[in-house]
Structure formats: C-alpha cells, structure tokens
Amino acid sequence: MSIFVIDDHPLMREAIGGLIRRLRPSAKVVEIERMSNMAKILAEHGEAELVCLDLKMPDTNGVSAVREIRQLMPDTVIVVVSASSASDYADLTREVGANAYVEKSAGAQEIGRVLREYLSDEADDSSAPVVPTKLSKRQKQLLLLLDRGLSNRDIATELEISEHTVKVHLWRLFRRLNVKSRSQASHLARTARLIEL
C-alpha cells in the first residue's frame, strides 16, 4: 500500500515525504501536486493506506478535496496538513471525512506525532490477515455490523456515535486484523469465527 502526499508546493511534499520515510523506512511515498491527477495515480498505485493533503491547491480549495478523496478511497486514512488555521477548518474537514488536521506551522515534530498515530507498524506490513486472540466488545460489534453490510452512517446510528468515530474505530480494527477492506474484515470474522452468526 502507498502513502500519498498531495501538496502543490514541492518543498512541502519533499519534507512530509521525508518525514514519513523516517517514521516508516519501507513506505512507498507517492508525491502528487494536483487533485486532477488522482484517477491516473489510483490506476497506477491503487488505493493509498494514508493520504496527507493540503487544502489549498490550484485545482481545488477548502474541504472539497477531502470529500473527493473520501469518495474515491472510503477506507483510507486522511490527514490534512494545511497552512490554514485549525479553528477555521479542522471541524469542517472531519465532517466530510478527514481523520486528523494539523497546521503546517506546528512543525515537523507535531506533524510526525500525528502521522505516527495513523501509520501501521512495520510488523503489520505482511499481506496475511492476523487472527487476534481477543477483541474488544466494540470491535466485535463493528464486525457484526460490517457483516450485515451496514454503511458507516448506519453503524454510527446503530451505535449512537459520530460517523467520524466509526471511521477511527474501523481504521483501528483493520489495523488489528491486518486487513485493508470491509469485505476482508468480514471474511476473516466468519472464517476465524470471531463473531457468532
């Protein structure tokens, strides 16, 4: 799986790309300067594990890029790294699907801390799913709801939590199981009898 760094400023792309490579040396970082290239990038590299996104670029502005990436890659982690104030955009970007928001002015240490939260461990890079010895009650609930084919919105309603919280829970569950999609998680849950059907 690749990590996309989307920013129209070459120096910023290189800086964030370098930071990601330090956090995870095996990372395949794809630097992207425009949203209009996304169809070609996806065809070439597949869905990203994580996307670092600037909000202001020549061909997009504001939260529209977050919305577009969420539609293209429903299960991908989106970290917005923007020069815009968090007080202006953090809540808006989360509402349309971003997992985290960090200001560029926060510096490399803070940006690295946020990225580290969402980067899978090196040990998880193998392609084989992992059958955990124990799952939390919430994780079992999520697997049951995924097996029923519920959307994030439906899961949020069922569990009486926000859609953003559902996305965070699913991301953690996928990481725990070492799977990349809802269907993989559901298949593993059935075959390994992680849920009682």
Task: List strands and helices in order, with pairings.
Layout (H helix, E strand, L loop, with lengths): L1 E5 L3 H14 L4 E5 L5 H8 L2 E6 L10 H9 L4 E6 L3 H10 L4 E4 L4 H11 L18 H11 L4 H8 L3 H15 L4 H10 L6
Parallel strand pairs: 1-2, 1-3, 3-4, 4-5
Explain what you see.
The protein has a five-stranded parallel beta sheet, sandwiched between helices. The protein is α/β, with parallel strands linked by helices and 197 residues long. It contains nine helices and five strands. The protein has helices at 10-23, 38-45, 64-72, 86-95, 108-118, 137-147, 152-159, 163-177, 182-191; strands at residues 2-6, 28-32, 48-53, 77-82, 100-103. It folds into two domains: 2-123, Rossmann fold (3-Layer(aba) Sandwich), CATH 3.40.50; 129-191, Arc Repressor Mutant, subunit A, CATH 1.10.10.10.
Summarize this entry quickly:
The chain has a 5-stranded parallel β-sheet, with helices on both faces. It contains 9 helices and 5 strands; from the N terminus they run E-H-E-H-E-H-E-H-E-H-H-H-H-H.
CATH architecture assignment name of the largest domain: 3-Layer(aba) Sandwich
- Quick one: biggest sheet? 5 strands, parallel
What is the percent of helical residues? 40-55%
**In the CATH hierarchy, what is the class of the largest domain?**
Alpha Beta
For the record, the count of structural domains works out to 2
Named CATH topology of the largest domain: Rossmann fold
Rounded Rg: 17 Å
| Low-confidence segments | none
Strand order in the sheet with the most strands: 2-1-3-4-5
Number of helices: 9
